[in-house]
Fold this protein.
Amino acid sequence: MFGRSGNPTLNEDTFEKSRQYGDQETMTIGGTVNKSFMLLALLIGAAIISWVMFFEGYDVFPFIIGGAIAGLILALIISFVPRSAPFLAPIYAVVEGLLLGALSANYEDLYYGITLQAALLTMSIFLGMLLAYKFGLIKASAGFKKGIITATLGIMLVYLLSFVLGMFGVAVPYLHDSTPIGIGISVVIIIIAALNFILDFNFIEEGARDGAPKYMEWYGSFGLLVTLVWLYIEIIRLLAKLANRD
């Protein structure tokens, strides 16, 4: 039985469904790594474009709103139709890159140096989780998976509630505040986001071991990118909260 990932784009039913197509080529960890680098390169390239546009005086706010909406739609399509990942995952990377570039530029304009700090922390946490998984320091046990899945879904519901209430001018207490409680909430969310990498690594490893179809390499790399983007956004928000307290 495949491991279940807390990442909503990766779950054990995905591999079960993919078997019915009978693809001859199978998923490999190396292939997934290569595709992950491709998606990351697209994301960074797109981020540079919106970053430069911001500092040249262009209005990049549409990239933030459009990227959030388009990214959500693409993520849902890929999640329900994994075979679309080879075609839509690169588009998702570009869309999210434009969003992150615009968002990062706005934060950088307010807090000089915050983007580099957020990027370095994000990659450090990613590498730390990879090493922890590789050397068995953190194991994706059944109980661990259930806990992270539950926490991840809980965070998603809170953000959804915050978005809906925000449309009516109501703010969720502490969630966006620079108070000690608000900072504590951000730290907890970052920890949950980071631990999702463990589940993602396990999911990809088991998919490769059990002979998932080749196109699932794109799906697995897409799932990693989703977690990476989430972690980066949470980290830069935390750094902004800390800067506001200075």
Summary: The chain has eight helices and no strands.
